[in-house]
């Protein structure tokens, strides 16, 4: 089995997994867009040897199918950055929410002690 066909099967498998995860509600649609776009791009590159060979020649890569893994690696780096950005944003929201909760709790306790 050629590495190109193997990568095509893997990409199709990931695509089906992403679509099924969205359908079951495990993965939100807005987060699946990047996965779907990447699967389509890698699927096109995997299914057409001429494109991957021309691209490899243009980039000076000796073994053309290794470009599929390069693009996959670049995608994963992009995903790690995107997820880190989202975690950072959620962390800031959590800190803000905790501070707001502490202020409201203190205000509630102060009002309760004034009534007693």
Automatic annotation (TrEMBL):
UniProt cross-references to Pfam families, sorted A to Z: DUF2304 (PF10066)
Keyword check for Transmembrane helix: yes
Annotated keywords: Membrane, Transmembrane, Transmembrane helix
Keyword Membrane: yes
InterPro entries cross-referenced by the UniProt entry: DUF2304 (IPR019277)
Transmembrane segments annotated in the record for this chain: 6-22, 34-56, 62-81
Name of the protein described by the UniProt record: DUF2304 domain-containing protein
Organism encoding this protein: Bacillus songklensis
